[in-house]
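Severity: low
Component: inverse-folding endpoint
Summary: output formatting inconsistent between runs
Steps to reproduce: submit the following structure tokens with default settings.
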């Protein structure tokens, strides 16, 4: 199955949604500071399709999230990465809405030594499905905001959005 994409305007700027074979494979900010394919590369290697099922569901769920009406995403995901990256990204999905954890805590959850927090940070930074795989919920051990592929302003916005959830 070929690559499909859609652009969703959002409060944090345009988001590029990418799918293949019925699963979401990417969600990228514009601009995105990570090493993923650029917007132009995605657009030339796939077809724009706002009606493709997983892209339509992603658009709907993200709109609900930004409106404060959704705290959990229910989408088929297929991120591409190393075995270690996939393990880290699975841990990210376990971080509850409105919560934060440190890189070291994720390393500990994976049974790694405390010094592995740097490797966790690198895997976190390579996350190809921003927001839905909530890499923005990972902070420094001292509680500080640390690097974010979408920029610290976006990270702060997402954390504030979740903190101000009207459902609770």
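Observed output (run 2 of 3):
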């Amino acid at each position: 199955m070929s690559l499909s994409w859609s652009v969703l305007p959002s409060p944090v700027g345009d988001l590029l949604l990418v799918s293949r074979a019925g699963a979401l494979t990417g969600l990228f900010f514009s601009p995105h500071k990570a090493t993923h394919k650029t917007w132009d590369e995605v657009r030339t290697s796939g077809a724009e399709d706002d009606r493709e099922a997983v892209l339509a569901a992603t658009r709907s769920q993200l709109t609900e999230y930004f409106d404060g009406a959704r705290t959990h995403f229910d989408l088929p995901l297929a991120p591409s990465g190393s075995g270690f990256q996939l393990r880290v990204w699975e841990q990210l999905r376990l971080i509850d809405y409105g919560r934060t954890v440190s890189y070291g805590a994720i390393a500990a959850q994976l049974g790694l030594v405390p010094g592995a927090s740097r490797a966790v940070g690198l895997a976190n930074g390579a996350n190809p499905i921003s927001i839905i795989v909530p890499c923005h919920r990972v902070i420094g051990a001292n509680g500080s905001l640390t690097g974010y592929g979408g920029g610290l302003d976006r990270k702060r916005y997402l954390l504030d959005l979740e903190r101000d959830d009207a459902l609770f």
